[in-house]
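TL;DR need structure tokens for one chain.
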Amino acid sequence: MYDIESIRKKINSDDTFEMYDALIDIGKNELYEFESVVRRFLKHTDSEVRRAAIMVLSTYWERKYIITELENIWKNDIDELVRVTALISWIAYFQNTKDKEITLKLHSLIVDEIVELEIKKEAIKGIYIVNNRKVPEKEIGKLDFVFDEIEFNKHIDWEEINQIISSV
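>> reply
TL;DR here they are.
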């Protein structure tokens, strides 16, 4: 059980760990009366607090109105983990839709040499997820140990990715 006064105190704290905890408690306990507060935390200076706000609105509460905002975050946030969190959450909204536009956006991330490898990894998973395909977890997991573009590309099943792209 949660204590609403404790959550209010933590959410207004200067301690980012307390803010993070409060946001997660708000999400898990479906305290929708805090929705406007949670939305404000999407712009917080602390990246972990921004990630928590993303998780509450998209994962716990599955708010559809945040889709455009999530895309803006994964394209523009200064923190890579925030971008990854936003991308994962954004992809979830399009699971099994076989949406061509989304698939092509994800593909463009994979082939863009400037995009970070963690974003590319999630984009690859996203192509599978959006197109109702089983994510090759073992192969994708190997990408965690790759730290350059050349090695990364060697671990991608480009034939399968291209087949998915051509099928949409």
